Amino acid sequence: MKTATAATMSKRPYAHPLDHLTGDEVVHAAEIVRGERAGMNFVFNTITLKEPPKPVMMSYLGWDKSKPRITHVEREAFVIILEKPTMKVYEAVVSLDNETIKSWKYVPDVQPILTMDEMFEVEELVLKDEGVRAECAELGIKDMSNVFADPWAIARHVNYPGRSKRMMQALMYMRTCEDDNQYAHPLDFVPIIDLGTMKVVDIERIKPRNSKFTRPTIPQMNHNFLPEFIGEENMRKDIKPIIVQQPQGVSFTVKGNEIDWQKWNMRISMNYREGLVIHNVSYKDGDETRPLFYRIAMSEMVVPYADPNTPHHRKHAFDVGEYGMGLCTNSLTLGCDCLGSIYYFDACFNDHNGKPFHVPNAICLHEEDHGVLFKHTDYRNGRAHTVRSRRLVISQIVTVANYDYALYYYFYQDGTFEYEVKATGELNTHVMAEDETPGDYGVTVAPQINAQYHQHFFTMRIDPMIDGPNNSVVQYDSYTSPFPTGHERNKYGNAFLAKPTVLKDTFEAQTTANFETSRFWKIINESRIHPYAKEPVGWKIMSNNMSPFYPSEESVVAQRAPFAKKGLWVTPYNENQMFAGGFYCNQSDGTDNLEVWANRERQNVQNTDIVVWFSFAVTHLPRVEDFPVMPVEHVSMMMKPANFFMCNPALDVPPTNKKVNLSTIAPQPHNDKSSSCCGNNRL
């Protein structure tokens, strides 16, 4: 059934094949599905771009020159539908060009991502439930407008096994007034919700441990951070403005979703699940444009909590696969979230009715100073040459219940790429009885408030094309020389060496960090040998934020998130393997994930089209200083060219000086008013 005339379709603006769906396209896809499935009672879980196959795009983008270049790519939407009230799941591929459903499939025994519509519906349901009201009354709460629920995925519940029912759990809190910090007043019970029937099917009380009390009281002390609670009179008075200006404009150019910055070129998109995605990254090296990465995005993250007692063992949030980094993205504020000369991109998602909802200023693009790029002083004549670093920043910020994650893609002038997470927001808190302690699994951040130990694992899916589609990964470990001091090959005992190991197959390419050997990895192209180094050109991948996965092998979270057990995996490219925790991560059973794919059979990953999965992490043992709001915790991974260029690729970055950046000397006693400049210092 067609829903738009040819004239209407001809007016639809042309989109690059990798651009995320527009609001009109969301509506169009929903109308096509609704028209062909008019007899069904359903809601739209998600409507998103179905990215074209990689071989098609490699031709379209001009990298594959083995055949005539593809110049048109069909525009398709991928639609996930929930039938009501059964919550059966259907997938549809919709051709927006031909206005037809190309495929329709029932997918048994899965539960798709939880949506914002469901979050609001569950909170409203919980607060009206008589059992919940009775629990609150027993705690002395008379006004239910002061009660709030954070709906969480349920992980795996012993009383509701499997995925035949779409379930959630609600973590409960109270506020003493509007905008009060609810995490200062946690409640001691957890409602369990069946989303199919939209009923609270159980309420679990969290009993105090090692306490004379059978039930804790609600902590009444307020712990707030908003300025109206702090009071203007208590704000610091010794802070003066820092103003970031680019009077001649920015150094990047934007065409649609394509970004050019100095020698870098890339495209961006935004989807409901991964959020910000970087596509088709290349670097201009002299007259040659060299391909680097086909696609980079955060594939999954998991946050396992350490407390083994029920229901805390179910607290291991998959913030990508259960909630969606796109669906949880913020609308960013100029001068607050982003500073300087800012270019914004909007995002568009869908609600349950198939209508678009827009997030203005969802992606921030800007440049920022990043200290010294390189410097050398010739001590003989005092000549100092300093070049300051600048980086391009592409970012989004997401809020997933209590936590906020600021997510940054950085591109540097020396060819370095970095992905950084700044974790902030509020700790997930649990109430304790007056005489209770957190035991071995948390810390008391305020009277009766327990912040439990937990970890954050961030798993990047990196689809490389280092100088072409066929790549390999080499692991490097450094060792003390095996020859003892005095040996002819180590006469003075100072020798150490680095051992490279090519990861040849999916069994070998499952590896962890090793700080004793300063381990890192390189993605290489074995078909292109560097003329100086006499080894394949490559790109080094590393992180100072790699951690063991502490839950036991048999734990529920280890079964559901085994990708976090290893720091690096390499698999052959497979367009159906996009998410380390499996496509249907919500209430997952562990049968579809990165570990399963890698161990299914021994597959070649040398000199072929590969995907690199890289995990970095932080083990968060909360501090009192993290409450009531947490200063950012920095965690990142980095890739750097390693024997890829002929020399430092940033040699042509001009030095700056005070005339350019308007630096001045702050007033100080005995000011010598030096007139030296960065490009020509004399000692």
Question: How are the SSEs ordered, and which strands pair?
Answer:
Elements: H1 6-10, H2 23-36, E1 42-49, H3 54-60, E2 76-83, E3 89-95, E4 100-107, H4 116-128, H5 130-138, E5 147-153, E6 167-174, E7 189-194, E8 199-205, H6 227-230, E9 252-255, E10 258-261, E11 264-271, E12 275-285, E13 288-304, E14 316-317, H7 319-323, E15 343-350, E16 356-378, E17 383-400, E18 403-412, E19 417-425, E20 429-431, E21 442-446, E22 449-452, E23 454-464, E24 472-480, E25 496-502, E26 510-511, E27 520-529, E28 536-542, H8 556-560, E29 568-572, H9 594-600, E30 610-620, E31 630-642, H10 658-661
Antiparallel strand pairs: 1-2, 2-3, 3-4, 5-6, 6-7, 7-8, 9-10, 10-11, 11-12, 12-13, 13-14, 13-23, 15-16, 16-17, 17-18, 18-19, 19-31, 20-22, 21-22, 23-30, 24-25, 24-27, 26-29, 27-28, 28-31, 29-30
CATH superfamily of the largest domain: Copper amine oxidase, catalytic domain
What's the count of strands? 31
Structural class: mainly beta
Reported by name, the CATH topology of the largest domain is Beta-galactosidase, Chain A, domain 5
Shape: globular
* Major sheet characteristics: 10 strands, antiparallel
Secondary structure tally, helices: 10
Protein name: Amine oxidase
Domain Copper amine oxidase N3-terminal: 112-205
Subunit structure: Homodimer.
Region (Disordered): 664-683
